Amino acid sequence: MSKKKQLDGIKTSKKSLGEDLQKPLQLMQAIMASTNHLMISTDPEGIVTSFNLAAERQLGYKASNLVGKKTPSLWHDSAEVAVRAKELSEKYGIEVNPGFDVFTIVPQREGKETREWKFWHKDNSSFPGSLTVTCIRDELGHITGYLGVIEDITDRKKTESDILEARKFLKLVNDNNPDYVFVKDKDFKIVEANKAFISLYPKDKQDKIIGYTTVEEYAPKEAEYFLEKDREAFEKGYSRTLENIEFPNGTMCVIDTQKIRFENSKGEVYILGIARDITEKQKLIENLTDSNEKLEYFAYICSHDLQEPLRMISSFSDLLKSHMGDKLEKDEVGKKYFKFITDGASRAQNLLSDILEYSKIDKDIQKKEKVNINNLLKAITNDLEILLNKKSGKIVYQNMPEIFGNKTQLYQVFQNLINNAIKYSKEGEDAIVNVEAQEFNDSWQFSVKDNGIGVEKRFFDKIFDIFQRLHQKNEYNGTGIGLAICKKIVERHGGKIWIESEENVGSCFNFSWPKSKEEL
Ligand code: ADP
Question: Which of 90, 320, 411, 418 falls 20 to 30 Å from 137 in CA-CA distance?
């Protein structure tokens, strides 16, 4: 319907009014036509006198069909109206009919009433609305009619129900979260706490937690520490503590607590505290560290002590060989067996010395010093001279930095990587090894790149595990410990080691080495 027609629809007895009264009437007509609120006016008996465009649109009826009729039951919910009628009857002690009176009895007494109702569209769909009914009175105070203004509150209701759902979900999470969750205001008082947090207090105190600063139940030193961490979170936005605590209910725990500052929509500042009981985890770590230490000590003792009998086998084999002299030279089978013995002893010696190195890593890690990588690489080049000559190898590097670390261990990492780069070179091709360094803000990154046989992608992780080899000892000799040593050393220094490689093209081993305090 056009605006013009709608204005006609809400026409009242305009001609009977004086000229000066026509302006407010026109203004009212304009408001009724342009507002999104549904506006319906009636006379004192409920006969519709006007029905605006929004009401037409929202309820599906035409003003021209309704003006002059008593119709509220068309769009109201009869069950809801009946319930309200009963309520009002009880409230005022009079019989209120479940009809038009239900909407006017309160406005008659109090001037107006705002209430939420369910409204029915002509097509049988419904929507929630907030209806304000106001009495229209003449100058003598007599009621000349009622104005009903309905606001469609579908969106508001949806938001309210979303909020309710979100609250329900939050409560579910909070009630079942084993972490201790709490919110403190700027006076350090608890304003929210989850079930787990409340359970930390004796039964008789649990209903008093909200409003507590929580420190009331702790020893003064502990309490002051809590507050200090609260203050830190308020000032810096975040604080974290790892501590042994005796809770008010008597349990002893290792607790990891994070406090995070936040602001509510009014700009008020709070801290959210999340404390996690890590007692079990700490115990496991301690047990694991303990058994690791014992295992490493065991490996150290074994490899150290087994070296002596192996040295005896080697040296007495040499003595026996010279003692037998010509006899052995002529005995092909004896010579073969003899070689098995000496090769086996030398392999076992290599293996033991690698295991010894591996088990010593944690012991040596503390000894840090300034290490010149240029000098280190020069020394490695000298030590690998025989292998380099055999493989026509070359180690290329320039402008290497000075870094902080354990010199022996840095030597081991570079030596193992370079040794492998030459050892796993391609048959009949010169082994070229490029060593490079790259500086980052808080770390160094080194790479040892070769033009060798390469490694299949599926073995990229495996080769760093202890005793993992991709070749038989008659193809390439080795113990399968070199890269495990590199990994352990690099990781103990806080770095990472990884490989990039393409089969038959070459490999590049990279490792990062965090800078120490002295370098930052
Ligand atoms: P080892 O060399 O004693 O066998 P490592 O731990 O040093 O033990 O290396 C493990 C395995 O990784 C090697 O057996 C080899 O298969 C592979 N590998 C290591 N370095 C390279 C390399 N530069 N090129 C190709 N393969 C390599």
Answer: 90
Tell me which residue has tokens 């479940």.
Answer: 98
- The count of other CB atoms within 10 Å of the CB of residue 75 is 23
What DSSP string describes 44-100? TT-BEEEE-HHHHHHH---HHHHTTSB-GGGTB-HHHHHHHHHHHHHHHTS---SST
Query: How distant is the alpha carbon of residue 502 from its chain centre?
Result: 36
* Phi, psi of 368, rounded to the nearest 5 degrees: -105, 145
Q: How far is the CA of 405 from the centre of ligand 1 (A)?
A: 24
CA 502 to ligand 1 center in whole angstroms: 14
User: How large is the angle between the packed helices 407-423 and 332-364, nearest 10 degrees?
Assistant: 140
Q: Other CB atoms closer than 10 Å to residue 393's CB: what's the count?
A: 21
Distance of CA 81 to the CA centre of its chain: 51
48-51 vs 38-42, strand pairing mode: antiparallel
**Which residue has its alpha carbon closest to ligand 1 atom 2?**
478
For ligand 1, whether the C-beta of 482 sits within 6 Å is: yes
Task: Average the pLDDT over 448-465 and give the result.
Answer: 96
Beta-ladder partners of 157: none
Separation of CA 396 and ligand 1 centre (Å):
20
Task: Please indicate whether residue 71, judged by its CB atom, sits closer than 6 Å to ligand 1.
Answer: no
Ligand 1 mean position, distance from CA 204 (Å):
66
Q: What is the pLDDT of residues 142-165, one digit of tens each?
A: 999 999 999 999 999 999 999 999
pTM (two decimals): 0.57
- pLDDT, residue 372, reads 97
For the chain, the average pLDDT equals 90
Q: What is the pLDDT of residues 271-282, one digit of tens each?
A: 999 999 999 999
User: H or E stretch including 353?
Assistant: helix 332-364
For ligand 1, pick from 352, 455, 465 the residue to mutate: most ligand atoms within 8 Å of CB. Answer: 455
Q: What is the pLDDT of residues 211-257, one digit of tens each?
A: 887 677 777 888 888 889 999 999 999 999 998 888 887 888 999 99
Please report how many Cα atoms fall inside a 13 Å half-sphere around the Cα of residue 266, on the Cβ side. Answer: 2
To which residue do tokens 């300034």 refer? 370
